[in-house]
Amino acid sequence: MTAAPVHTEGPRTVAVTGSTGLIGTALVAQLRASGYAVRRLLRSANGATASDVVWDPARGALPPMALEGTDAIVHLAGEPVAHRWTAERKRAIRESRVRSTELLAQAIGALAQKPRVLLAGSAIGYYGDRGDELLDEASAPGSDFLAATCAEWERATAPAADAGVRVVLLRTGIVLSPRGGALGRLLPIFRLGAGGPIGSGRQWMSWISLGDHVRAMLHALVTESMHGPANLVAPNPVTNADFATTLGRVLARPAFMPVPAFVLELLYGEMARATLLAGQRAQPNSLNSKRFEFAHPTLEGALRAELRRDP
After folding, report:
1. Domain 13-177+207-235+281-298 carries which CATH code?
2. Counting beta carbons within 10 angstroms of the beta carbon of residue 5, is it exposed (0 to 12), middle (13 to 18) or buried (19 or more)?
3. How far apart are CA 223 and CA 217, in angstroms?
4. What is the pLDDT of residues 8-67, one digit of tens each?
5. Is 278 exposed, middle or buried (0-12, 13-18, 19+ CB in 10 A)?
C-alpha cells in the first residue's frame, strides 16, 4: 500500500465504524501511522481497548460520549451483501446501513461541538445496472434493491449536513485486496487455472485498489472543499472478461473457463443478478477535481501491487 503523508492539518481525532472489516482495518492502520488518534465504534466489547466505544446501532444505542471530542467520523459499518438474499437478509442489509447512519447523523447534529466532517459509506450500486453508460456523481440512481438502499443510506446523513457538518458520501466500487472482498474470493479459483469471465463477461467492473481507497478517504478527510457524493473507483473501469484475462495474466494462469449466468442465478438468485451479472462504468470525477493522484490507475498495476507480483 502506498503510504499517505503524515498530516499536518485537518482532523486529529477520528471515530471509525466498521473498523474490523477489510477497508476499516486498513484505514485504522493508516490513520494511526499518519498521526491520527482513532476511536473505534465496535458492536462487541471483545477486543476493545480503552479508546474504543461499544455501540448497538440495531437497538439505537450510542453512548452519549461516543462522538464527543472527535474531529471526524468515518462510517463504514454494514451487513455483508455477498450472500443469497432472503427477505430477512435484505432487511438486515438495508437496516444495518440506514439505521446506523441515522443514529450517527442525529447524534452529530445534537453535539454542542460538532466534528468537521462525516465520511459516510455508500456504493456504486447506487446507479444500478447501467450497461455501457459512463457514470459520474451527477448520474441518476438506479431502481433495484441495492440502488434504493444506497439512496436511502445517503439520505440518512441529512441531519449531519443540516447541522453544518461537511458530508462526503463514499460511493465505493470493487475494492481489490487479496485479504478479502471479490478478489480474495476469486484468487483460489484463478490460481487453480479454473477462473474465467462471469456470465456474458460484458458487465463493467469499477474497481479500486485497497491502497488507493484508503488514501482517497484520507484525502477526503483533509480536503475542505470536498463534499457530497464521490465515486471511489479507479479511472479505468474494465469489463468482467477483461478483468478475468488480466488477473490470469498477473497470476500466470489460464482464465478461460466461463461461469454460466444460470448457475449463479440458481445459487444466489437476486444477489447474482444485481451484483455478479450487473455492473457500473463509473468515473471518479469528484476525486479528479480535488487533485487526488491514484497510485494504481490501471487494473494490471493494481493487481500486481496488491498481489506483490512483479511484471
Report:
1. 3.40.50.720
2. exposed
3. 10
4. 455 699 999 999 999 999 999 999 999 999 999 999 888 888 899 999 999 999 998 999
5. buried
